[in-house]
Predict the 3D structure of the following.
Amino acid sequence: MDMKPSLPALLLSLVAVHAFATGPATPSPDPAEVAVPLSQQLGGSTPPSITGNPAADNVNPGTGLAGRLLKIPEDTGLRFGGVWLGDTNTVLSGSSNPGRWLGDSLLILGANLDAEKLVGWKGASFGVQFLQFNAQSANGLNANGLAGSVQGYNSLPGPAPLNRSELYQLWYRQSLDDDRVIFRIGKQVPTYDFNNLARPAVTDDETLSIPSVTGLMYTPVFVNPTLLGAIGGYYNSVTGFTISVAPTKNSYVRYGVYDGNVADGKQTGLTGPDFNSHTFNIGEAGVQWILADKYPGSAGAGLWYQTGVLTLSGPHSVSQDGTGGFYLFGSQRLWSNQLEKSSDASTKTGEGLSKSAIETKSHTQNASISTFLQYGTNNAETLPMTDSIGMGFTGFGLVPYRPADSMGIGMSEAWLNRNIFNRNHELMFQFYYQAHLVGSTFFQPGFTYIPTPGANPDHSSACALTLRVMVLF
């Protein structure tokens, strides 16, 4: 029997976590801006873990290494970077094509101009990005695919065409009132700013920051399944307007309105703006906290509404005038081996740690475990999924002498639109290990088990293997 998740229970659990905070939160440097440049995430002698798909998670691609190699002077305010991801996938069992291998290649090149550095235009910046994607249908929503996954066990391939060259982003961003108000207008990726589950949890104390909430490679951590097919995102960027306001140092409120033709089946990443009766509106509020001066966490909630008449053709023809939904997400560090600062002034040395603590710390790498939770629901009759719930755990630096490695496990279940699919729901589990190779290069194998692949009702299950390389520059 299908059992849908209890929304009140999820709301109470998030409220309870926040209520147990024992002290004031230490905010991120810019709580009104969701995405943190990877150049910051990869700073220092040892780069931290990154998300399983950096192309779907960050406003500024890469580390800016490309610009430094081109000898672009820093005082010009120009940053040039990029990211390349390549993977190969196979279904070990449960598919119509077991043992077949399919590959993906994604390249994003981006330039950002800080107008304040260049011409003194305070708080202004401009961004442009180009995307090149060449892939095969690893998720398997067609006869040539593999797993038959509606949610997407691999976040790289999306709607056809799977071979595309596009102007991915082109926007103007303005920061006002010491970053308390930020707006962006132009061709952009709303999932960077809304329901961004995988974004880093950043605090003023870098030792407390969670570099990436999860490195899972499946689509639900980048787009809530109940928003899939409506919100613009990787790789279907859209033209619109986003504004963020930070009422306090550890909270934000955000609103966006965009070209809503994604819900009408159009590939907006390959086209220019088309403002008509289809618009996508979304609002979100979020907060950060730190428990016991050691365990950072965050939570957010959002509402969205899609206008225009949406139609579904096929055996179950449906027409709906507008649709909307609601979502929740949250993350929390559960455990850390970070040493407590000594409260005894007579034993303090150097950075405030006792001598014995400093000696212990020199022989111990930082390690931690975090968790995340997400939920979504909508009243759509034409989108692929109507309800979803997901959760996971991530371990950082758990393997000795591998401080930049991470590993994690996640679960996502989505209730499918019966106007489209024969199955009621799709359940998916994924495990990954992200290994730091050298510089800003990572290798990440992942194993996915799908007991109920939604697009392949004739198959009882599917087991998929993904081997991915990520290079940030």
Notes: Residues 6 and 375 are 10 Å apart (CA to CA). Helices lie at 7-19, 38-41, 65-69, 115-119, 355-361.
